[in-house]
Write a structure and sequence with these properties.
CATH class of one domain: Mainly Alpha
Radius of gyration: 35 Å
CATH superfamily of one domain: MetI-like
CATH topology of one domain: MetI-like fold
Number of helices: 15
Number of strands: 12
Order of helices and strands: HHHEEEEEEEHHEEEHEEHHHHHHHHH
Largest sheet: 5 strands, antiparallel
Shape: flat
Strand content: 5-15%
Distance between the termini: 45 Å
Strand order of the largest sheet: 4-3-2-1-5
Length: 573
Amino acid sequence: MFGSSKMKSDSQSLSNGAPKPSVLFKTAVRIRSKAHSNATEGVPWIWVCAGALVTILLLIAGMFGIIIAQGISALWPKSVIQLQHDSQTVVGMSMRTEDSENTETGQPESKVLVYQANRDFGMNEFAFVPAAKIGTSDKPAQIWFAERAEWGPFIGRIVSPESAGAADLNAGQVKDLIGSAAVRYKEIKALEKGPLADLNTDIEELRLKKRATERHLELGELSAAEASAKISAIENQLSDLQTKHASVSEKVQTLRAADEAVKATLIAPNGQTKTLPASQLLNAYLPNQLSVPEKIGIFMSRLWSFVSDEPREANTEGGVFPALFGTVAMTLFMTMAVLPVGVMSAVYMREIAQQGTLVSLLRIAVNNLAGVPSIVYGIFGVGFFCYTVGVSVDQLFFQDKLPNPTFGTGGILWASLTLSLLTVPVVIVSTEEALSAVPRSLREASYGCGATRMQTLWNIVLPKAVPGVMTGLILAMARAVGEVAPLLMTGVVKLAPALPVDGHFPFFHLERSFMHLGFHIYDLGFQSRSTELSRPMVFASTSLLVGVVLLLNFVAIKIRSQLRKRFEGRGAF
């Protein structure tokens, strides 16, 4: 405004016959400076926003880097040290150095935390050694580190039971001993999880059939002759199955006897010995003699075992495969439940329902549901799904199993449905935003070509909104994978080696309890007997959970990209 008035006055002075070039030049410079000031007024805030974004990204990258580094260190083989202090010998793995106050002198001192293992040899698993009192420190070459099926790791010597106190077994002998024992152990597990499990399932089904026949006889739905004939046939089948079961069990016992015959003797640094079956030794190596390639090989072997094996020792050791499988299966079931419900609800509110007070109230309710604490959904899930719907299903279809509940207790189905209720507001809001972003001109053009509302919705609007729908689904999956509170009540357990999927009809056993990586991390961090022992597994499990979230999101993003390309080819975009 000021610039325009100045130009007007300057132009009037020129028209009056008194040209002033200096005035015109100053005015032009003033106008240019004003324009430049307006153009650069928001530049500092742009840099502030960019700096905030970079800071957040660096914090996230740093957090993930710490988690992954700690997870890798938990699986990486470490050296074993031998410390001499006050005429005592401490053998173990150095964990870290802590600064504390001496209770006697009140002066600060540093202590080295050493993991000694061998908790079944009358030794403390951890020992604090004052750094100032350490006399000598070395890495003995003939010290074994062995992973055991029970009682945790062992650090010490491994000898043959026939020559206890003699020379230690060499690496080749220990490897052959563990390898032959592992073959027998796998045979035993294959029989237990294969033929024996199948026979147990068939015997249980026949027992239920017999119970159902007796119940039908009591209700008068079968005559005594028909019931007697059916019960007799069932008992004959049971007799055959029990004979087969006894034969397989005998094979298992024979293998166990052979397994018990091959033993190894462990000698701890404190001199105590223990003889145990060789199959209890899952892996053993000389940590102070490993080369870098050998360490990498052990790390990869541990990583595979961590992903593919079952947990042991109260979940502080072993693998996390049941938890990994349960996490992915629960997320997929939740996705199949939340996607159609969320999309149809959003389509109805945005495209079909008459816009008014009722629809506005529904939107407010959906937005409020997104802020309800997850534990509230857990309480609702256990009260409605487990104790109402599940109990009704048991009374209708599983009377023969009562009073033992089938669907009337926590299971992966109820947990998935509970999490679908938790995440459905996210899908509804994202889908509505995607539908509202579709240009109205596309709808009008479709109507102008003679298409109906349903044809326009199905062929024009929904394809255009697919990226927004997939974005909402990605956010829902990311939230559901990390939720733990609702699962505590609706089906997750500390240990469930039986997976919800197997080879028995109906193959997908949605009534079974399951393990979850989120709950597994919570259990390790707050319910284990030793935080020092569980800390490495916490970081390793957290790294795996982060990897699962990233993988699921990557798959969803790829699907979104493929759908976008597909609909672009049809001209929908």
